[in-house]
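dumping this here before i forget
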Amino acid sequence: MTREAAYEKLNEVFRDVFDDEEIAVNDSTTSNDIADWDSLEHINLIAAVEQEFGMKFSMGQVVAMKNVGEMMDIILSQIS
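structure:
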């Protein structure tokens, strides 16, 4: 899967989790960029991403992620 195709799927997950059709994430997007992205929604987001891509994040990966680009790197490394 290309990074672009993965971002199409990831954007849909973000739109579903945050109930906002206007969201468009990229490599530099952080929780500060999305109003409702708090710790509870982060858990929901991680679960939704895992389900969409058929993979699992480790706790260390979840804690270490600084932005959506790092999340995408992990996704692509696990589904490739």
